[in-house]
Amino acid sequence: MSAHKYELMFIADSELDERGLKKLTEQYLELITKEGGSFEEPDYWGRRKFAYEIDGKNEGNYVVVKYSCEPAVSTELDRVLNLNESIVRTKIIRKDAK
């Protein structure tokens, strides 16, 4: 198997401060590097208003990360992100052609 390129966007709870958001992001990026993957510097978009209410919230902290890893690692990343109550939404897109 070979590594694929992905782009992850997640929205974290707006209650998190900058330090908490960076710590949360690093926790998930560690999962990628631990399994032999790599990532580019996370792009912190900051706090933004939602177009509609999500789980009783009107805004959240947006983070975008481009990374490369095996497909199984990306699947596991998605799974653990969805278990965290501080993560409002996630989206992982595979960026390379099949």
UniProtKB/TrEMBL annotation:
The keyword DNA repair does not apply. It comes from Bifidobacterium mongoliense DSM 21395. Transmembrane segments: none annotated. InterPro entries: Ribosomal_bS6, Ribosomal_bS6_sf, Ribosomal_S6_plastid/chlpt, Transl_elong_EF1B/ribsomal_bS6. Keywords: Ribonucleoprotein, Ribosomal protein, RNA-binding, rRNA-binding. Binds together with bS18 to 16S ribosomal RNA. One of its GO terms (cellular component) is ribosome. This is Small ribosomal subunit protein bS6. Belongs to the bacterial ribosomal protein bS6 family. One of its GO terms (molecular function) is small ribosomal subunit rRNA binding. Gene3D superfamilies: 3.30.70.60. The gene is rpsF. One of its GO terms (biological process) is translation.
